[in-house]
Amino acid sequence: DVKVTQSSRYLVKRTGEKVFLECVQDMDHENMFWYRQDPGLGLRLIYFSYDVKMKEKGDIPEGYSVSREKKERFSLILESASTNQTSMYLCASNLGTEQNIQYFGAGTRLSVL
Amino acid sequence: GEDVEQSLFLSVREGDSSVINCTYTDSSSTYLYWYKQEPGAGLQLLTYIFSNMDMKQDQRLTVLLNKKDKHLSLRIADTQTGDSAIYFCAERNDYKLSFGAGTTVTVRA
User: Fold this and answer.
1) DSSP B83
2) Beta bridge partners of B62
3) CA-to-CA distance for B62 and B72, rounded, in angstroms?
4) 3-42 in B: which are within 8 Å (CB) of A?
5) What is the average per-residue pLDDT within A41-61?
6) I need a labelling partner for A84 at 20 to 30 A (CA). Which of A64, A103, B27, B66 fits?
């Protein structure tokens, strides 16, 4: 079974802090994704990575950056956390096949105070 | 996602069928998906359908696709309390998936 692991289930941070959200997948997938999930808005893509050190902006990249130094690990970075970044963050990965099935982690619920 | 729309809530009695509807806008989407999210968990793929199919059945799940109207539905037969969750419709756009806002299904006894 594919396993996508997010390092924290819950995080509480203060405004202005630098925040790292970590995601690891164990299936040698090329592609990894970061989404945020907000009620009534569904999932919105923040960033996408299709290879080590490669990244593309998604629909809402402002205020975020990412890092992919190893194939299995994809990090989301909030350089200076703000209250409007309080949300559920979901990581996903896929193999890049035609079916494009994405496998998700359990999510990190981030609260910025 | 702005390109995929679904109603936000559905309440169904245990044992009845649930039908969750979704509309999408990209007629070139090759695959459409249904994901399920249980409380406190990530998204789990339930099923997907290729765009040249009208219907796909998998045990209690039936997916219907109307390409002309860009309408996708998920029917759950004999709905159980374990089916209470948020259901997301998604369409494939190149490498991305565009998700709807999710339909919260509540199963009442």
Assistant:
1) G
2) B57, B75
3) 11
4) 4, 8, 30-31, 33, 35, 40-42
5) 94
6) A103
